[in-house]
Specification:
The complex is a heterodimer of chains A (154) and B (425).
Chain A lengths: L1 E5 L9 H9 L6 H8 L8 E5 L2 E5 L8 H5 L5 E3 L6 E3 L9 H5 L6 E3 L5 E3 L11 H5 L5 E5 L3 H5 L1
Antiparallel strand pairs in A: 1-8, 2-3, 4-5, 6-7
Chain B lengths: L1 E5 L3 H13 L4 E5 L12 H5 L15 H4 L2 E4 L4 E5 L4 E4 L4 E3 L2 E4 L3 E3 L12 E3 L3 H12 L5 E5 L3 H12 L3 E6 L11 H13 L3 E4 L3 E7 L2 E7 L4 E3 L2 E4 L3 E3 L2 H5 L8 E2 L11 E3 L4 E5 L4 E3 L4 H15 L12 E6 L2 E7 L9 E7 L4 E8 L2 E8 L6 H8 L8 H5 L10 H9 L6
Parallel strand pairs in B: 1-2, 1-7, 2-3, 7-19, 9-16, 10-11, 10-16, 11-12, 18-20
Antiparallel strand pairs in B: 4-5, 5-6, 8-17, 13-14, 14-15, 20-21, 22-23, 23-26, 24-25, 25-26
Helix pairs in contact in B: 1-8
The chains are: A alpha+beta (154), B alpha/beta (425).
């Protein structure tokens, strides 16, 4: 399946990916409107890790055997049948934070902006290229076909 | 191949999904003494609190059985296993043959024997039926008063839910502190203070000794210290004991739970056990033990299911963990979070006014446990470090400070996590 590959050596920590992730998940899909009116209600699905000169944008790693799936008590965390991506069905999530407790990448966060649910990358739901990848000016994120480890090893 | 699964919860779903990933032809029969709905037991607390309706208790959609080609026998209990004839018998007299059997019977709520248990208003809190009845019962009472017995995870969840439903709650716990199995002193005190500040009457080193009724309904309870508590309902949330009776009678090796190997095989090669009923490997304490949590149940079920159809996926072992939210403040316990200071390297950060507490436990440079109250974002990074036994001796202070980040973990490990599946490190 297609996965986001992180090239930390190219990341300059400009956070444009964060902006575009936010816009992508806004209802207006417009930078200005999203920032002016929806900022308080939406959060980016990725996390920019930063320490000194080092930075990179981190999204869900789309694990082969996702810990979040086995831990999710509601069944909200699931594999999208069409794309194979691990996504959270926000209408079923109860915000128990089991998934946050087990995700080794720390890729899931609490969304407490007027709600109480888990928030994670959804690979822009089958988009040709996720918004963060498409808008990284430095090529620090790429979208590549990477087989599951099991298949790859076979 | 005929596969029979006793129980239709997390373990059974894990098993079925993994069987069908590899094999479409095995005949699968599930037998459950509850209804056919696959519901989430942990969500019963959200249901009791009134946060979700009954339909949202569903863990898998109702077409799960047909889509996975599984025959379901609901509302019927297995009463015996014949390990020689390879069959199980149910309460209604059905006899069902198996080539492979999975015991996924979970646990049973612990209720100490005491006078008054037969009164209206006495409940346990582990099944959908319990929660539905309790919920209905509360609807018929004006400003209900509840007595919750047990200050462990289940008792706390029941307390928080009852409080959200507007009940006045008294909670009794036999130990000197609540959540003693999961938290250490300061974390437990923080949670206890939150409960008390919000009007919950927490009484430790105490328990119920008799429930008194009037016209068949609960009216008050007597406690160990001879005091009395007026109440309309008594909810037992002490915990669960593995449902291992069937296995015992069938001559399988059973300690506290059913003894299993890394493929969840019991002492009988045709019979598997997984989930709350099994005594499987715990990688933090480095021994087999029962740990009644959802992720273990699902994973162990999946391992058993795979093995039944010839796929060997040995269990790397579980990590005991749990999460609870009390008065809106989340608390987590991962691994050996409350290990004593002797023999461990313990790091602590406390901000009492903000209700934030963090305790990390290291042994020989490796993280073996964590307790987090208040700030829980990215807690899974700790779990990953524990699971992978990563040497974090160099990073120990950074792991405690500020916001958790992958950049606070060793570089090699970070690259391994970040690069993810299929990419060379
Ligand atoms: C209120 C509550 C809150 C919880 N919260 C959490 C949480 O937040 N996180 C977490 O990780 N865990 C939580 N747990 C624990 C979690 O629910 C269990 O670990 C999990 O349900 C275990 O799954 P299982 O399939 O092994 O067994 P169970 O879920 O116990 O299911 C076993 C099934 O088998 C049936 N059965 C038993 N004997 C027979 C028989 N002889 N014949 C037919 N059927 C039989 C039972 O009726 C039951 O339906 C919670 C538990 C409770 C009660
Ligand atoms: S959320 Fe975390 S555990 Fe789940 S698939 Fe993504 S990286 Fe893996
Ligand atoms: S927070 Fe939501 S998605 Fe995460 S485990 Fe709980 S119910 Fe599932």
């Amino acid at each position: 399946m297609k996965r986001i590959v992180i090239h930390e050596e190219h990341c300059i920590g400009c956070r444009l990916c964060e902006v575009h992730c936010l816009v992508q998940h806004s209802s207006s899909r417009d930078v200005i409107k999203a920032y002016r009116r929806e900022r308080a209600l939406i959060m980016p699905r990725l996390i920019v890790e930063e320490s000194g000169p080092l930075s990179f944008a981190l999204q869900c790693r789309q694990c082969d055997e996702p810990s979040c799936l086995e831990a999710c008590i509601s069944g909200a965390m699931h594999r999208d049948e069409r794309t194979g991506a691990v996504v959270c069905d926000e209408s079923r999530c109860v915000g128990c934070w089991m998934c946050i407790m087990v995700c080794p990448a720390g890729a899931i966060r609490q969304n407490l902006l007027g709600t109480h649910i888990a928030s994670k990358c959804d690979l822009c739901y089958g988009a040709e290229e996720p918004a963060c990848v498409a808008n990284c000016p430095n090529g620090a994120l790429t979208y590549e076909d990477i087989p599951d480890q099991e298949e790859g090893a076979a | 191949m005929r596969i029979v699964i006793i129980g239709n919860s997390a373990t059974a779903v894990g098993a079925i999904e993994s069987i069908r990933e590899h094999d479409q032809s095995a005949e699968i029969t599930v037998i459950s003494d509850e209804g056919p709905m696959i519901y989430s037991r942990p969500m019963l607390s959200h249901y009791l609190a009134g946060e979700i309706d009954r339909a949202r208790l569903a863990y898998r959609p109702s077409d799960f059985w047909t889509r996975h080609n599984v025959a379901v026998i609901a509302d019927d209990a297995v009463v015996s296993i014949d390990p020689v004839g390879h069959s199980v018998e149910t309460n209604s007299g059905r006899v069902i043959g198996y080539d492979r059997l999975l015991i996924a019977t979970g646990g049973q709520p612990i209720v100490p024997p005491l006078p008054g248990l037969d009164l209206d208003g006495v409940f346990t809190f582990t099944r959908q039926g319990d929660a539905t009845q309790l919920s209905r019962f509360l609807e018929g009472v004006n400003s209900p008063r509840a007595l919750v017995v047990g200050g462990g995870m289940i008792g706390i969840k029941a307390t928080d839910s009852l409080w959200k439903r507007g009940a006045h709650v008294t909670m009794v716990e036999l130990a000197p502190m609540i959540l003693a199995a999961a938290l250490d002193g300061p974390a437990s005190e923080m949670v206890c203070r939150l409960l008390r500040e919000n009007g919950v009457d927490v009484r430790t080193e105490n328990t119920v000794t008799e429930i008194h009724g009037e016209d068949g309904r609960v009216r008050y309870a007597t406690l160990k210290d001879a005091s009395t508590v007026e109440c309309d309902v008594v909810v037992f949330g002490i915990g669960v004991r593995p449902n291992s009776g069937l296995a015992n009678a069938a001559g399988l090796k059973v300690n506290r739970g059913i003894c299993v190997d890394e493929f969840m095989r019991s002492s009988n090669p045709h019979i598997y056990a997984a989930g709350d009923v099994a005594e499987a490997y715990d990688l933090v304490v480095d021994m087999n033990r029962t740990v009644a949590i959802w992720p273990n149940a699902y994973r162990q079920g999946a391992i058993a299911g795979a093995h039944m159809v010839g796929i060997e996926r040995p269990d790397p072992g579980g990590v005991a963990m749990n999460t609870v939210e009390v008065m809106g403040v989340p608390a987590m316990s991962i691994g050996n979070g409350n290990a004593p200071e002797e023999g461990h390297d313990v790091l602590v950060r406390l901000d009492e006014s903000a209700n934030v507490y963090r305790r990390l436990v290291l042994r020989e440079g490796r993280l073996v446990g964590a307790i987090l109250v208040g700030e829980i974002d990215r807690a899974g990074i700790y779990t990953g470090l524990i699971r992978n036994r990563i040497d974090v001796g160099q990073q120990r202070q950074r792991l405690l400070d500020g916001h958790m980040s992958l950049l606070s973990t060793p570089e090699q490990y970070r690259k391994h996590v970040v690069r993810g599946a299929g990419i060379e490190v």
